[in-house]
Amino acid sequence: MGRRGYPAEYRRKVLELVAEGRSVATVAHDLDVSDQTIYSWRKQDRIDRGRVPGLSTKENSELAVARKRISELENELAIAQRAADLLKEQTSPKVVSPGPISSMRVLRRGRDPRMQPLR
Questions:
Q1: Is the whole model's pTM more than 0.90, yes or no?
Q2: In this structure, are residues 66 and 55 in contact, taking their beta carbons and an 8 Å threshold?
Q3: Does 67 score more than 80 pLDDT?
């Protein structure tokens, strides 16, 4: 609900002064706060109380935490993908060894046709 520089208690007291009938401009001038800041606080207060549709302070906070976590996970994923790419570049392809089917050929024929006799 507003700028982080102002404590919630301070914002609440400012809104109470406005609710008592003092004009936003007068309160803003007396407390050296911009009138737009007070209007923003009042709008967010109305949202938090359910008088106006919108995201509440709690929902905004949860959304900010979720966005931060998503950003962290995206960074971790990018690092993992880059590491995988680097490993692919650095490793040589595997040599395929004869599998069970070629072993069966050896048993049936008595020798593996790919094997050459020693000279």
A1: no
A2: no
A3: yes
